[in-house]
Amino acid sequence: MATWLGWQIESNWTDPLLFATYSIIKPLAGASILVVMYAVITHGNFSAPMFQWIYVGSALYLYVGSIMTGISWGVVDDRERYRMLKYLYAVPTPFAVYLLGRGVSRFITGSFSVWITILFGVIFLKIRQSPEHFHPALFVVGLVLGLATLASMGLVLGAVVLTLKTHTEQLGDAVAGALYLFSGAAFSIAMLPAWLRPLAYALPLGYWLEVMRRSLLGPPPAQFATFAAWSDGQLLLALLGFAAGYALLAAGTLKVCVHSARERGMLDQVSNF
Amino acid sequence: MTDLSVDVQGLGRIYKTRGSPGSPGREFSALTDVNLQVRRGELFGLLGPNGAGKTTLIKILTTLLSPTSGSALVAGYDVAGESRKVRPRISMVSGGEASGYGLLTVRENLWMFSQFYGIPSGEANRRIEAMLEVLHMSDRLDTKSAELSTGLRQKMNIVRGFLTDPEVLFLDEPTLGLDVGASRDVRAFIREWMKEDPNRTLLLTTHYMVEADELCDRIAIINKGRVLACDTPENLKKRLQGEAIFQLEVTPVPAAAVTSLESLPGLHKVTHHEADGRSRLDLVLEEESALSSVLAHMTGLGIHLLSLTKREPTLEDVFVELVGTSMEEMEHDVSGGA
Ligand SMILES: Nc1ncnc2c1ncn2[C@@H]1O[C@H](COP(=O)(O)OP(=O)(O)O)[C@@H](O)[C@H]1O
Ligand SMILES: [Mg+2]
Predict the structure, then answer these.
(1) Domain-embedded: residue A79
(2) Which of A108, A206, A258, B307 has the fewest CB atoms found within 10 Å of its own CB?
């Protein structure tokens, strides 16, 4: 039901051009910048396995922003624009379920961006993969675990947003942008300064992208050897651990933040902007 | 099911406003030691001026806000500790705000909400159609709610509150900002709904005296976070029965003259409004015979009588009696002070 609502909101582009801009052009523009940067650094060596690795990783990374924003933005939107949050909070359906539902609709629109970007790469940048490297099972399990973890991260963010008074629309994208550096999408985690590396290892993003890229492209190139010693099974186990850990974290954060919002009367507050 | 739908004991709520650098944070007591019992089947009104704490109380009873002290049971469950048991049994609508998803139609908005309560889709649609019919807006079923006027949007929201057939329904200023016709529709709708099932309980807030008087079985008068009186409208007005109330229209009265009137013997209370170059004075006299000395005093001040009526006490008079000023003046003070 929440998904249906989210979808109605997401897909309600009075102007199809606007929809195109957000779901297609924006991700493609992002990809193009990446391509140009890569071209400058490597003098246009697009056939290297490393390029495919970076390109596919960055495309998949679009899920991070869209799901985290989808959930946390739902909080702001319902509270400020539609003035419905207080009513939704008071319904018998648990609040977290509602927020997750809003996230699912963002997953659908996000998927659109991800696969358009990858298709673009396949057609124009000769991203190729040999069929023997494609692991459907690894792909599906990795995707499900990763999305579950992202949804929990979105809930954590949504819960925090609930207690903030300031204008928080862009928080999801901002956090996703900051975490990009720690995800190993564009460069290996091993290239981070030593003191930042623990943070990257504590986040699920690097493990997730590794699984996803392995399932699509096969073994990692030499430049991305961070997880080379890990088997697929070990990576999935780590992801499973993250999914469970973050789910607990989300439940805890939501509980604390909703409690605090009730204390301070913020479930129906409207910021002045 | 318990016989008390709402049971509030010693309830208090303090708002903390965070201080900016330089000015310390302040504490504001929006509700103080509120005790209130609403019986099952009652249409109960909370009457008070803006800022009295009505919305704060509704928010606590609907689990949106936690109390600072005291306790509140709704449908037999504690709003703080058992909020999950309270929520399926209640519903709430605030008037005077444009909530709802503008890009969904009226039907979609309402239907979606019914789904969060697990109402079968066919049943939900049947209820939506029937309720919109009563509110004279059947023709707007498939209009996007963004295209509705404020009044129609508010009616849609009121339907949302009734749709889930709650055990206890809370309406916060349901007719705020509605025109006369729409207000009448809403009040008729409320009465109808209460008549359909004697187990339904409705608690509404209002700052319209007449609305509280004609609609509610019992009323609590609330001011500055305190409940001052709680009784049926008739009993509240009976308190003033020994007194005689006159309404006078006179040539303009200077403020100093009003003060001098107040000190006359036999005059219990006087309130004063200016309109269209005339003054309206509402006099509450301890007994009718005091009227002649008041009129004599006014003549001495050069004030001329334009009309004079004796009238029955209203809730407005009850409020003046309890608070000392009229509700209108209260609201001026509040907005002036803010
Ligand atoms: N979130 C808040 N923070 C601080 N003060 C508040 C807050 N909400 C309401 N108040 C204050 O509490 C008092 C009661 O408000 P409210 O319950 O909305 O009154 P009513 O609904 O009767 O008009 C008002 O003086 C208001 O300024
Ligand atoms: Mg109010």
Answers:
(1) yes
(2) B307
